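Bit of a strange request maybe. I'm writing a small parser for structure token strings and I need a real example to test against, not something I typed by hand. Could someone generate the tokens for this chain?
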Amino acid sequence: MPIEFAKYHGLGNDFILIDNRHSSEPVIAPEQAVDLCDRHFGIGADGVIFALPGQNDTDYTMRIFNSDGSEPEMCGNGIRCLAKFIADLDGSEAKTQYRIHTLAGVISPELRSDGQVKVDMGVPRLLAAEIPTTLAAADAKVIDVPIEVADKSWSVTCVSMGNPHCITFVEDVSAVALETVGPQFEHNKAFPQRTNTEFIQVVRSDYVKMRVWERGAGVTLACGTGACAAVVAGVLVGKCDRVTAVELPGGVLEIEWAEVSGRIYMTGPAQRVFTGCISH
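Reply from user aminoacidic:
Good idea to test on real output. This should exercise your parser:
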């Protein structure tokens, strides 16, 4: 039976979106997602996102399979794309703000009149047990801690945005051999659930450049949760302002870590590319 899909991207971080509102389980298996994400033999994407029925007073539920078939807790660029997708599905009935159930908790994207999507990403988690990582005691924060990766000592700060992030500050992000170093960070024994890794170059305290190796997807053009985690890490080590622009290979995200509430807000674009049908 054919399955309709739409292709969206957020700053080049691209996804296959499927209307899954008729079922509480994804209509395709992780193995099929791997095939669909293949850029030569499939549609091509960093992941497949499913819009499922809401749970516990939420409007929708978000599930996502990465291009390697693994399932992350959340995806920042993906949830902006999902917000645009469900607004397109809802048509004239579309709301401007949604409450979406994810494996990282309830996330609330807001569609703004300028075409951008602002997302309340919740409160970052900073304790080692929450990330999780063994780089510090379970109830301690991981800030500027050394780790040996790829025969080099790196100073890292770890943050969970519902999914694990390891952030390190470098002089020149373009000089990082991401395809070599990224997998070694992701699979390092210090991260029992693997990790996303962000390499950050501070241009100004309110503007940074970032490259990312995403857990389960590899090199991507953007990572929303990673940009949020990077700004949190930058504030913790005294390198970033609480409102900072993060330049990724695919474009710029505006990140705010509110001082009073402690919540993170991410603002950026999401665009539909094309629609189609999958033979199932």
